Amino acid sequence: MIEVRNVSLRVGAFSLNNISFSVPRGVYGMLMGRTGCGKTSLLEAICGLKPIISGEILLLGRDVTKLKPAERGIGLVPQDGALFSTMTIREHLAFALHIRDWRNSEIRTRVDELAELLGLGKLLDRKPQGLSGGEVQRVALGRALACRPGILCLDEPLSAVDEETRGEMHELLRTVQKHTGVTALHVTHSRTEARALGNRCFFLREGKIVEASAADLAESVVEEAKTK
């Protein structure tokens, strides 16, 4: 479970105050809102990458408010993938495991598992240059999942993916969530994406969190389609 309790934060002149919401264990949560509304800042606060002024953050029943990012048990998929140009895909998937002193045999087994789950087998010895947007995000997802985190946070992971690939990524993310049982929080501005993936959906509007119903999402998707 992800629990945000009365969290306040400030980034320059921007602030959020007394934000509260929760994503139940094993649920795929979507955090939506317009550009600049603070959804990425809130996600980064959950991950420990941005300090909060007040409030509490609990992950899987554990208060992580004062813990460092690496101590929170979170896998993070950043918006642009943030891959290292000098590392192979195999090295990306093994990166966090080496840091945590896994045995080489365990690392090889885990990398093979991730490659099979994410369809990366043919890319393992390549470097990121020349990968498609979808391939970059598959690698970033594998790196985030490597240590089997209980929480997965994704910051607009499909924003640079074309329409055809986006459908494939929806299916992949559903498969990953079902396979791992991870509790997810996925930031997006797309109602279509939220409806395709989310079990619980939240809007961040004018500094407040409002949970969206299935009817709200269906109506929003229709309106979103009309604007395209």
Report what the structure shows.
The chain has 228 residues and is an alpha/beta fold. It has a domain at 2-82 and 151-226: 3-Layer(aba) Sandwich (Rossmann fold). 38% of the residues lie in helices and 26% in strands. The protein is built from seven helices and ten strands. The protein has helices at 39-47, 89-99, 104-118, 133-145, 163-180, 191-197, 214-226, and strands at residues 2-11, 14-23, 28-32, 54-59, 62-63, 74-77, 151-155, 183-188, 200-205, 208-212. The strands form two sheets. A six-stranded mixed beta sheet has the order 6-7-8-3-9-10, sandwiched between helices. It has a four-stranded antiparallel beta sheet with strand order 2-1-4-5, with helices on one face.
Compile the SSE list and pairings:
Elements: E1 2-11, E2 14-23, E3 28-32, H1 39-47, E4 54-59, E5 62-63, E6 74-77, H2 89-99, H3 104-118, H4 133-145, E7 151-155, H5 163-180, E8 183-188, H6 191-197, E9 200-205, E10 208-212, H7 214-226
Parallel strand pairs: 3-8, 3-9, 6-7, 7-8
Antiparallel strand pairs: 1-2, 1-4, 4-5, 9-10
Helix pairs in contact: 2-3, 2-4, 6-7
What is this entry, summarized?
By secondary structure, the chain is an alpha/beta fold. It is 38% helix and 26% strand.
